[in-house]
Amino acid sequence: MRPSVRVYLLSALLSIPLSGRGSSDKHYTLIGRVVSKVAATRAIVIDHDEIPGFMAAMTMPYTVAEGIDLSGIEPGDRIRADIDVKPDGQYSLDRISVTDSNHREKTPIETKQLWPGQDIPDIELVNQDGKMVHLSEFRGKTLLLTFIYTRCPMPNFCPRLSSLFASVNRELAKSPKEYERTQLLSVSIDPK
Questions:
Q1: CB 73 within 8 A of CB 37
Q2: Count of CB atoms within 10 A of residue 155's CB?
Q3: 186 to 12, 15, 26, 35, 39: CA distances (angstroms)
Q4: What are phi and psi of 188, to 5 degrees?
Q5: Averaged in consecutive runs of 10 residues, what is the pLDDT profile of the chain (192 residues)?
Q6: Can you tell me the distance from the alpha carbon of 150 to that of 83, in angstroms, rounded to the nearest whole number?
Q7: What is the pLDDT of residue 87?
Q8: What is the pTM of this model?
Q9: What is the pLDDT of residue 11?
Q10: For the residues of 56-122, what is the DSSP string, one character each?
C-alpha cells in the first residue's frame, strides 16, 4: 500500500450574525454575484466587486444577518447588500436586494468532496520562488493546507490563519520527527 498525503484544511470563518447596528459599527456596500448558498448555516458565498475602503474584489463566504429571508436569493443572482462590521471584526450581510436574477443557475454546481483516506488530485501550484509544486511531492507527509487572500482586511480571516500557521510551525519545530513528517502549505487566492 503506497503512502498517501493527508490534508487538513484550516478555516477561521468565525463570523457571527449581527442583530443590529451599533453606533461604532462600520458599514460598507457590497455588489456581487451569489456563487452558492447554505440556508442551514445562513451563509452565502459571493464573488464581489472591490469594496472601496474595505477590501479588494474577491470571492468569500458571508453570514447573513438574522431576519433576512434567504428564500429569494439563489446562485447566479446579482445582489447589493450592506456589510455591517463590528469593532471586534465580526461582520454580516444585511439589507440584501437582488438586482438581477436573470442568470440563476439552472442546475446546481457539482462539487467534489474528499473523504478521509481518499487520494487527492495531484494539483499543480506555483510557489513563492516561481517553481512548480505538485501535491504528490508531499506523499507520505501530513499536509496542513489553508487558502488565504494576501489583502484581507479582517483580522479573523487570513491574518488569523497565517498567525495560526506560524504557531503550528513553531510547535512542530519543537519535535524534529513531527516537523520532518509535516508540511504546511498556504495557497494564495490572489497571487498577483
A1: yes
A2: 12
A3: 14, 21, 30, 23, 29
A4: -80, 130
A5: 48 37 75 89 90 84 89 93 86 92 70 68 88 91 83 70 89 93 86 64
A6: 20
A7: 83
A8: 0.57
A9: 43
A10: -SEEEEEEBPTT---TT--TT-EEEEEEEE-TTS-EEEEEEEEEE-TT--SSPPP-----TTPPPP-
